[in-house]
Amino acid sequence: MTVEEKAEVKEIYREEAVQALLYGKENRNEFVLPAAELIKKEKKCLKRISMVILAVVLAVGALDVWAVMEERSFNMKLLFLTMMALALVILLFAEYLGLYVRRKIGAEKISIDGEHLRIDGRYYSYLGIQKIRLTSPRKKSSSIFQTHRYLYILDGEGKRKYWLGSEASFDEYDRLCKSLERAMVSYPEKLEYI
Q: Strands 116-119 and 131-134, how do they pair?
């Protein structure tokens, strides 16, 4: 960007927008999220969770076998524990299945600059974007499973959804959010955290 172009930007926009526009044009903010690497980290995390669930299922199974061998009645508490163990196994299976679904909508590369957002070669002009919704960086999981992060873009062509990994796989998510906030400083109503 030439000195004349920088002076023109300073005349047209207010101070916050000037910093965002100049920062974006001088220093490209690129985030690379290789799907294979994200999936590898997610699987590593799920393996640890699988071990915990396996221990729970084995403990409940041992209680079930003990109740049958001792010819005790199969009481409601034991039935509840058995159902909860089965529910955990189903949730774990759903998480593994969800990895393959998320891989298809994963964003491989995100570039943010002063004029537009580029995701995997697709350009979104900030002016043409109606709404950008992001998972809040402060959102934490209340269960043993990780919080998955998504980016939704609504523009004239429709709504697109991108998976950005989870707490276990994408460490630079806070920086990505801050870069988007700086880039969208002229359009604060278009950026929303969910």
A: unpaired
Terminal Cα-to-Cα distance of the chain (whole angstroms): 35
- Residues 20 and 183: their CA atoms lie apart, in Å, by 5
Structure tokens at 72: 């005790």
| Segment among 22-26, 46-50, 131-135 with least mean pLDDT | 22-26
The alpha carbon of residue 26 and the mean position of all alpha carbons in its chain are separated, in whole angstroms, by 27
Q: Is 99 exposed, middle or buried (0-12, 13-18, 19+ CB in 10 A)?
A: middle
Residue 149 · residue 134 · CB < 8 Å: yes
- Cβ atoms < 10 Å from Cβ of 35: 16
pTM over 0.90: no
> Tokens at residue 97, please?
């299945």
Tokens of 149: 């992060």
What are the helix (H) ranges across 27-159?
A: 35-69, 76-105
- The span from the CA of 192 to the CA of 190, in Å, is 7
Tens of pLDDT, residue by residue over 126-141, are 888 899 999 888 888 7
* Lowest-pLDDT range of 71-75, 119-123, 139-143, 172-176: 71-75
